Amino acid sequence: MNDMSALVHPAKGQPATLLHLVDKKGFDTWLGGQPERVRQAVAAQGFKGEGFQLAILPGEKEGWSALLGVANVDELSPWCLAKAAETLPEGTYRVADRSPGPAVLGWLLGQYRFERYKKEPSKKGPRILLTDDPARIDETALIAEATNLVRDLVNIPAGELGPAELQKAAEALASECGASVAVTSGADLAAGYPMIHAVGMAATAERAPRLIELEWGDPRNPRLAIVGKGVVFDSGGLDIKPAAGMRLMKKDMGGAAHALALARLVMKSRLPVRLHLLIPAVENAISGAAFRPGDVLRSRKGLTVEIGNTDAEGRLILGDALSKAAEDKPELILDFATLTGAARIALGPDLPPVFANRDDLAEDLLKGGEAVSDPVWRMPLWKHYEEMLASDIADLGNAADSPMAGSVTAALFLQKFVPDEIAWAHFDTFAWRPAAKPGRPKGGDALGLRAAWQMLRARYRK
């Protein structure tokens, strides 16, 4: 994660290569007004005004400019300039005759590279964009930095990012923003956070489980809790995953990455809240100390949970963390988790389901996502499916016998640990892009982060 504000500068008349924007409906009219050299160059490059197309235009005597295809020149999306940012050479650029508006975000995110393990990283220099809307720079740069923080954390292999490294990430954030961090780890979890302890106790001592808590802000402000699932690697436990299911499990801490990124946005923007960030960080490993199918765990809240499947571990650690968050009576709790494959089956990789116990909160999240092109979809907390979590010997089970409604039953399990009087929303995010799109490379990514931030800004910013 770098300082993204270095890639966008206020326009003050400095030299820059022009970027001409055109959409398909206006392309023929635009082309008809160009000199022959431009028409020939456009034809030679097969440019037809389609989205994300790019053509280099020769200058009258020297120099050049670029022609970019966008979906709609009258309503730019965050991704209109992303392909150009990925492909254009190092230099300074300016959109001709207009402000880039929300497309600044894609310009920044299009230059992300994860090359930590490359022998020869890309040597391509920065592409700087000029804008006549300087008020947008700081906010957009912060969002880009938050997104790239999620990407970096999710992309790091599990062998190099364990619970201790998540703790270090939280401590670095606290140091940067003037927050405090408290950590409960190892055997100390057993009494207060028994489900976090049970899930993580099969890992080595160096990768001991822990609950990481960060506090920031004026205690007089409304209390906001953000919780993120930090399973740094998920083998499935004794109900072991097949190899194909385990391949991407370095990303099972994607909820924690989202929570850290959202907390950074809150603190860097000085949002008038009292922030409580909670990350239960564990490795769901296999050893003689692993928890077992059929075990009964007592939660922090006092509810007993029969283990039907050790691969449904994320909801267990979140249950204890949500209970702790609720004890301080926050006005709002948001949790992020790469919780269920059922969510991907229902909505695919790009559309995170969100569950909320308040209609107005759900509506604000949907509107926020739509406003910033970070869509989410509300799923139901359908109480009739609570019977699928019934247990013969405990207060509830952690997994239904049926594969149906898997994301709903997981959310219903979490709801058991949130008091009805506290507003709560749960994001079942994928935190991963299986295929690249302009500004959104294959690999770890933030999905639902900007929607949540847009909602928080609208709710709390003075």
- Approximate shape: elongated
* CATH class category label of the largest domain: Alpha Beta
The number of E-state strands comes to 20
The CATH topology of the largest domain corresponds to: Aminopeptidase
Share of residues in strands = 15-25%
Family: Belongs to the peptidase M17 family.
Keywords: Aminopeptidase, Hydrolase, Manganese, Protease
Domain Cytosol aminopeptidase: 309-316
GO biological process, one term: proteolysis
Please provide a written account of the structure:
One of its GO terms (cellular component) is cytoplasm. It comes from Allosphingosinicella humi. One of its GO terms (molecular function) is manganese ion binding. This protein has 462 residues and is α/β, with parallel strands linked by helices. It has two domains: 123 residues, 3-Layer(aba) Sandwich (Leucine Aminopeptidase, subunit E, domain 1), CATH 3.40.220; 318 residues, 3-Layer(aba) Sandwich (Aminopeptidase), CATH 3.40.630.10. The chain is 33% helix and 21% strand. The chain contains 15 helices and 20 strands. Strands 7, 8, 9, 10, 11, 14, 15, 16 and 18 form a nine-stranded mixed beta sheet that branches. It has a six-stranded mixed beta sheet with strand order 1-6-5-2-4-3. Strands 12-13-17 form a three-stranded mixed beta sheet. The protein is elongated and about 80 Å long. The two termini are 28 Å apart. 47% of the residues are buried.
